[in-house]
Amino acid sequence: MATTVVAAGKLKIMASKDSNLPANMIVDVNGHESRKYEDFNGVFPVGGREETGGYKGFGLAMMVDILSGVLSGAEFGATCKGAGNLGLGFIAIDPNQFEDGFTNRMQSLIDACRNQPPADVGRPVLVPGDPERQHMELCDQLGGIPYTKKLLQIVDSIAERYQITPLL
């Protein structure tokens, strides 16, 4: 999961659909909020601004950075730009060493979450993994992954620049 309000890859997809991004997502080089992707210099942490709990998201991001970057000897913080010396952190826990019936208790939690009344009528409450499963089902129904016209144009321009013949 991203420890920011939105994953960087989703920002690129949003920007390919619209010239303005939603509020409270990205900051510019001066640390000020911007809605223009070309100003992108960082993403607000989970929780957004300080007054909405962003410091908690920052703490979570820092913990992940320590476990996956600092501890592993990989890039971390501002030096971590995506493609390079990326580290991974793993924590292996055997839940049955803590409490009997973990699987049933976990399913009860998932069921309780999904059975909450939704904030938006017509949009069910989801648990982690549900949106991804729904998207996989959509891709199966469509027979492939849906892309925006603008994104396909970007891919075509990259192929043209490197003189790659498109497959389709």
Description:
By secondary structure, the protein is mostly helical. Among the domains are: 1-75, no CATH class; 132-168, no CATH class. Helix content is 39%, strand content 4%. It has five helices and three strands; from the N terminus they run H-E-E-E-H-H-H-H. A three-stranded antiparallel β-sheet has the order 2-1-3, with no helix packed on it. Strand 1 (26-27) and strand 2 (33-34) form a beta hairpin. The longest helix is centred in the middle third of the chain and has 17 residues, at 54-70. The two termini are 33 Å apart. The model has no long low-confidence stretch (mean pLDDT 89).
The proportion of residues in beta strands is under 5%
User: Between the first and last Cα atoms, what is the distance in angstroms?
Assistant: 33 Å
Number of helices, where a helix is a run of at least 4 consecutive DSSP H or I residues = 5
Low-confidence stretches: none
How is the biggest beta sheet arranged?
Answer: 3 strands, antiparallel
- Radius of gyration based on Cα positions: 20 Å
Tally of DSSP β-strands: 3
H/E element sequence: HEEEHHHH
Helix content: 25-40%
Which structural class should the secondary elements be placed in?
A: mainly alpha
| Overall outline | globular
Chain-averaged pLDDT:
89
Strand order of the largest sheet: 2-1-3
